[in-house]
Design brief:
- The chain contains eight helices and no strands.
- With 179 residues, the protein is mostly helical.
- Helix 1 runs antiparallel to helix 4, helix 3 crosses helix 5 and helix 6 packs antiparallel against helix 7.
Length: 179
């Protein structure tokens, strides 16, 4: 199983990451589609080839073709939105907020899966990409849809674990080459 492969690759100094991976997959608060869509979207957003290679096949096996595509779409559209909206937010001139974005985001209108699932995936990717404006927007939509804070937190908890695993494994590959 590729999750086991990821855990076995983690260095001795990162036992908490193994435990956190076990916790994410061992007692999920999310439906299977929400969990695996979040895993796939955040594996893409982590930019870690190792993590994506190991987790994408499991995500494909656990998601419908539509959900698999929607999770990839969430990662793609948030890659654009997070940079754009984070930059708008960070600029001192609030006038940028009044300008038309000029970005195509048609997938947001019909993501091909339940809106709540797509919003969870978008929120998780926004957590990795550190876009406060997008995090706030997706959290508001989720809360308005009746999603509780614990479920919202589960999405960004998954994001934090997947990101940490990617950072650690990618760094370890480089360190192994130079040590």
């Amino acid at each position: 199983m590729s999750l086991d492969s990821l855990k076995s690759r983690l260095p001795h100094y990162a036992p908490d990451l193994r435990r956190n991976l076990d916790a994410v997959f061992g007692r999920p608060r999310l439906t299977a589609q929400q969990l695996w869509g979040t895993v796939l979207a955040t594996a893409i957003a982590s930019r870690s080839p190792v993590v994506l290679r190991e987790l994408a096949p499991e995500a494909r096996a656990n998601l419908s073709p539509q959900a698999y595509t929607a999770a990839k779409s969430a990662a793609a559209v948030m890659a654009v939105n997070n940079v754009f909206h984070r930059t708008r937010h960070l600029l001192s001139d609030p006038g940028y907020g009044d300008l038309r974005t000029g970005l195509r985001m048609n997938v947001l209108g019909d993501p091909g899966v339940a809106r709540v699932d797509f919003e969870l995936w978008s929120l998780a990717v926004s957590a990795i990409n550190a876009c406060g404006a997008c995090l706030d927007a997706h959290e508001r939509v989720l809360r308005k849809a009746g999603v509780d804070r614990e479920t919202v937190q589960e999405a960004f908890r998954i994001a934090s674990v997947i990101q940490a695993v990617g950072v650690t494994l990618d760094a370890e590959a480089v360190l192994t080459d130079i040590e």
